[in-house]
Amino acid sequence: MRGLGGRFLLLAAIALTLFASTACGASALEVKEDAAVDREFQRISRDRTSAPLSGIVASRWDSVHVFATEAADRDEVEAAVGRDVDMPDTFFQDGTLMVFMSGEEAVTAVVVWGFVLDPGHYGRTATVRKTADDYRLRIVEGK
User: What is the pTM assigned to this prediction?
Assistant: First the structure.
């Protein structure tokens, strides 16, 4: 009996913790792969052209934090965006992690493999480009 009562209390405590964190909106932001974003990055790279990031990722956002995946540290990402992010401690593939912000709220997180954009914090006017002079995709502000 004593063992069952202890297990019940442990399960109740876990359930209460999960309920409290969900009720407070404390769930971590999920990082997703986006095939449409990947295709558009491939097109820009292949055609050596450019496109506004707002046209590539159309969700509601006004700024974006960009991280190179091979250097992305969970603590650094979470400190920059002000929210827990559901991501591995270490990425094992080159790519770009983009966390889109609406005001101070992190609303969307997208990872794209094979393209490493310049890390930084950019506004809604950011453009992804590859020119004849660029050896890789770039992200630039307001162009």
Answer: 0.79
